[in-house]
Amino acid sequence: MAGRLDPRRMVCGAAGGDGGAAAVRAMLAMAALACAMPAVAQDARIAGTVVSADTGAPLAGVTVRAGGVSAITDARGAYSLAAPAADHYTITFAEAGHYDARQVFARHELGDIAPVALVARKPGRALFVFGGDVMAGRRYETPLEGERQLIRPGSRLADTRALLAEVTPDLAAADLASVNLEITLSAAPLTEAADKAYVFYADPALATALKGAGVDYVSLGNNHTYDYLEPGLSATIAAVDAAGLGHSGAGLDEAAAAKPWRTEIAGEPWSVLGFVGWKGPGTPNQVAEAGKGGAALGTTEAIRAGIGAESAAGRATILQYHGSSEYSDGPTDITAERMTAAVEAGADLVIGHHPHVIQGFAFHDGKLIAHSLGNFLFDQYFLETHPSMLLRVWMDGEDFHRAEIVPLHIRDYRPVPAIGGMRQAVLQRVRALSVANGVAIGLSGGHGWIAPPGTTVAAIPVAAAGERLWRGDFESFTGFGAEDRSWEIDGGSIAAARMARSGGFALQLTPAKGAERMTLSQKIAFRKPAAGPLNIAGAVRPESPARFAVEVRYRAAAKDAPPDRWQRIGEVAAPAGEWVKFAFDSQPPAEPNRGFSIRFVAAGEGGALPTVLLDDVTVVERAVN
Q1: Which CDD domains match (predicted)?
Q2: Is the dihedral of CA 249, 252, 255, 261 positive or negative?
Q3: Domain 11-41+479-621 is in which class?
């Protein structure tokens, strides 16, 4: 069928702006495919090696499973298996003397899997798993216009469990799993709120769902624990207690808020302390005081005292600290000071929250510091908050052994495995922000890993600098039951199509009946300003001749100023059925800006508006010398 898109292709996850009519037409086109061919035609060959994380030697006898089939590694640690056709593959690695591993790959990633390292089990060694910020209110139950309701009043627990389904195996495998619970919990309506811009609460089903997913502890030392004052805090503490979750970081008075949570893990006594970094501007403020509830205020002195007391009692300690600036690349000076002070007082591990984006890692006196784990279950739509991670840390008593970064994509307001470009978004950001602190990030399969200071690490290869989009391969547009809310279209519908220029998926733009053009836009602008020239590139393939344009709009620095007009920076004429590459430059305005948006406009060339495929889109900010 030269000159036309193959009608047998499979189209997934259709959405659009014409009341669903275009989506219906796309679904009708799918019927032919469903009868003519499977979604993916051939089994996938999965091959690689497994090594010891402790010695680097090949591991024989490891059972590798994917898609219902298995293989055993040979003396060289090698495995090879043919798994049934699928869009993505969950591969598990199991051997009695080592901790299990679980990794997820898109089909096109299977050809180049780095060696997977397994950590040996030994007496006194424990696995900790840490996630970032968690809430399940606001847009989960009251969605934005055009979005689906993720948590329904009649099925809150089941719906919340479903949101955590893709990460439940990782949480359940830990000796201790922890998240930052950044919301008030109450089954009864709460009406008296703190005097602040953003307040929210969720049903206690969230606590039950977290416990069921494998979470053992939640930090309450944050700026939303006291959103609904004393009644809200009391209800929250009651809810996490009823769910069987350990907690610290907040209480009904200053002494209760500062109290650590104590437990025993692998025969070692452990204490976890939570703190928030500031009082907040409202009256009453958000921190606990004599005779008043709230979060524990994490001054340097309070952190030293709390950590020091637990360490002096012979207990290994973890600091959970909520501070720094939102959406930033690294800790503020005061956060860095408090994190290192905690280590000097005896903390064995420091975990940071609040920026809503992932940051890098550092070591101080041999102790690992995670500056920010980003979001975990959160309803923010900013693109920069979507790359995230789970952090797996193996501790030998008080001594750090190894850490592993599990890349996540916060898509559809839920954590799912990061694949394709989104995996690179996580690993490249963490690599860049950690190497600045002298910490190298290696590669184990599709995960990052961190070794103790002084260990030689083959660092993750550096990708092209300046990429801002990371999702333009469209491998993460669909899958895992989660919708990509990043894009919207006027004049048609969008769906993932298995007819990619590279990888497994492209984005298909299907016109609405009678539409003269389709406009594909970002729903939300890039928050970070463009400091240097932008290069926007990709490839387009129309069903019949079409013109395809790229436009950019910058946001003025003043918050009350309207954004600039859309600027058309380039246009290509694309013949029927052929991939045509495009690349156009845009120079930001001389005056400061508050970020920017991109959009694509498709129009017919001397005929009806055709269906269009889009793939391999990049948005690169070039460095200014």
Answers
A1: MPP_CapA (cd07381)
A2: negative
A3: mainly beta
Question: CA geometry: angle at 147 spanning 143 and 148, to 5°?
Answer: 80
Residue 224: closest CA among 263, 190, 256: 190
Per-residue pLDDT of 7-32, as tens digits, reads 334 556 555 554 444 443 443 333 33
Residues in the chain: 625
Whose structure tokens read 């501790």?
395
Contact 510, 14 (CB under 8 A): yes
Domain 45-84+88-118 has CATH 3.30.70.2750: no
* Torsion (CA) 133, 240, 208, 316 in degrees, nearest 10: 70
Domain boundaries along the sequence of the chain: 11-41+479-621, 45-84+88-118, 129-450
Strand partners, 556: 593
Please give the backbone phi and psi of residue 29, each rounded to the nearest 5 degrees, phi first. -65, -30
Are the C-beta atoms of 501 and 539 separated by less than 8 Å?
yes
Residue 533 CA, distance from chain mean position? 27
The alpha carbon of 503 is separated from its chain's Cα centroid by a whole number of angstroms, namely 21
Instruction: Please state which CATH class domain 129-450 belongs to.
Output: alpha beta
Confidence of residue 464 (pLDDT cuts 50, 70, 90): low
> Do 257 and 249 contact (CB within 8 A), yes or no?
yes
| Calculated CA dihedral for residues 349, 102, 62, 444, nearest 10 degrees | -60
Structure tokens at 100: 């299990």
**Phi-psi label, residue 445: left if phi above 0, alpha if psi -120 to 50, beta otherwise:** left
| Sign of the torsion formed by the C-alpha atoms of 480, 481, 487 and 493 | positive
Of residues 150 and 29, the one with the higher pLDDT is 150
Angle at 32 between CA 30 and CA 35, to 5 degrees: 110
Cα 326 from Cα 181, distance rounded (Å):
17
| DSSP code, position 199 | -
* Residue among 407, 482, 414 nearest 445 (CA): 407
User: Token pair for residue 599?
Assistant: 């959009």
Residue in the block written with tokens 């359940």: 172
pLDDT tens by residue, 52-72 = 999 999 999 999 999 999 999
Q: What tens digit of pLDDT does each residue of 93-129 get?
A: 999 999 999 999 999 999 989 999 999 999 999 999 9
